[in-house]
Amino acid sequence: MKRKLEISELIFKILSYLFLTIFALSCLYPFVYAISAAISGRAAVEYSEVVLFPKDVQFEAFKVMFSDNLFWNSYANTLYLTFFGTIWALGVSLLGAYALSKKRLLFRKGFNFFLVFTMWFSAGIVPQYLNYLSTQRVFNAVGIKDDKWLVIIAMGMAAMNIILLRNAFEGVPSEIEEAAVVDGATEFQILSKVYIPMCKSTIATVALFFGISRWNGYFWARQMISNPNERPLQVFIRLKLEEFTDPEQMAGWNKIYASDSIIYALIVCSVIPILVIYPFIQKYFAKGVNMGGVKE
Amino acid sequence: MKKSIASDYLIYDESRGVYTEDPEQAVRDDVEKHQWLGVLHTIMRDWRLYLMLVPMILVFLFWRYFPMYELLGCFKVTDDVKPVAEQFYKGFSNFKTLLSGNTSISTDFWRAMRNTFLLSFYGLCFGFPMPIIIALFFNEIRSNIARSVYQVLTYLPKFMSTVVMTTLVTMLVKQGSLTTNMGILSQLFVKLGLITSEVGNAGLLNSPSFFRAIYQISGIWEGAGYDSIVFFAAIIAISPTSYEAAQIDGAGKLAQMKYVVLPSILSTIVIMLISRIGSLLNVGYEKVLLLYNKDTYITADVVSTFAQRYGIQGSLKGIASAAEMMNNVVGMLLVISANTIARKASDVSLY
Questions:
Q1: Residues of A (33-62) whose Cβ lies below 8 Å from B
Q2: Which of A132, A255, B106, B126 has an alpha carbon within 20 to 30 A of B348's alpha carbon?
Q3: Nearest to residue B276, comparing CAs of B227, B232, B242?
Q4: Strand pairing of B18-20 and B11-13?
Q5: Domain range spanning residue B37?
Q6: pTM above threshold 0.90
């Protein structure tokens, strides 16, 4: 039996569609505008003639960007940081979470508290800065001159992600582990052959969290990496923005594209890789939020 | 080895050939009886497990707990010349400087405290209900394809980094006259009469009275769609029979909202609300740092950016640490009390 829609339901439905359409378009619009502004001619951008579609199309801004070695360098650095940073953080988290998920671990509560306390209380950025400076000295002394490795090893660990993994491991039935023990598997084999395959989707989610936070990392990379050739993309974008919104530096601008177009081109370049992999990773992201509930 | 129902809780203790309920109890017994060999045996039996813990412990010790030691610099007068460890304790002088209220640094600190609280409080008032409303709206859309399109589009901004987001915001509201260079959003606001053209000309981000609005709106724009996932999951878990029962009783849409939907997602709302209150003083300093400037310190400067300016750019590390110490201790008290309330109210512990 098909029920007739009541008036209140109808109004609510219309309201939903209206609101969501406006919100979704407002989420999409800045990206479209960024693309249009990046490829429009100078006069069109400066005299605000670009609203949605590009005008007097030029690709000079992109060409200039692509011929900039520092741009490619920063891109490569970001990929490097994301790749090795994710592997390092995930590896440490997997081992720690596996040990924490075992009830036979002594002082388990103590280790858990050791982790969780860092979520309650953080030292703040000035003490962290001093700490990273001394770490940098130690790293330089042992021969790690590349500040990228300081960022990879010292930063980006998250207690929350370890707890997500621990909860997933705790959900694996102990019978399966016992079967593996009977077959003579060692601890490391149990982790790699039983637990990791069984918690694949949680691990993917956590890896994604680590990866995204590495890709987006800005503040500490800017503080700690002084060599311009080692800067990641986010720092590069910010420095360009600071340079290009400074009226004194922009006074003698005489290119065929507007100075804004460079910034928009940079935004487009940094967002496109994420948009490309977005459809593949979206489901893991949605999943991660639902796992947020944490138990002691 | 015969398995009992309670096997999840019983642990086979090899060293004594019995099942015990609590491995630590066994160790405590051994300690009492001074049988240290038994303790050692229990640890050696699982040495691989403890080995696995080592990297994690080291990482957290070096880069989470050592900074807490450095935080003790707030009780010292520190400068760039000597490392914190080599300086002497000066008691609470840094705290006195911050709290006394006579110096400019103290005025700045109180301003930063106030801004920190206000930014999070407004976030709680405006940012928190938004995902719930969006989740309710998502629920109205019956067509799966249409809903996925809306979802994909509204999650999109979440995937941008803070830097890209703030760069976009800066460009969209940048200064200029209506005909040249003004950001496209500023133009729209001027035309709608939301802001005067003088404010638009000077740039929205240079005007202190608009900073909080920009911060909140960009936050909602960035996160509301993505944050709605958890509420939407709670809504679709409601059984259709509940709605049918309500309809048979003659409930209209509003009544269904009130008596079916809200009670069902209330626990989710409470949990999210409490976790939000717990992180009330954790303002995203990166975003503030990227959006504020000299002209907007009045409304934008938060404790972390205050500490960054005085302690990292400047050399008043002791004072900056003292400011962060106060902020973080209050923050921790908030987290712990929020967690206690959560445990009491809903049997769900956040941490």
A1: 33-34, 46-48, 50-51
A2: B126
A3: B227
A4: antiparallel
A5: 5-80
A6: no
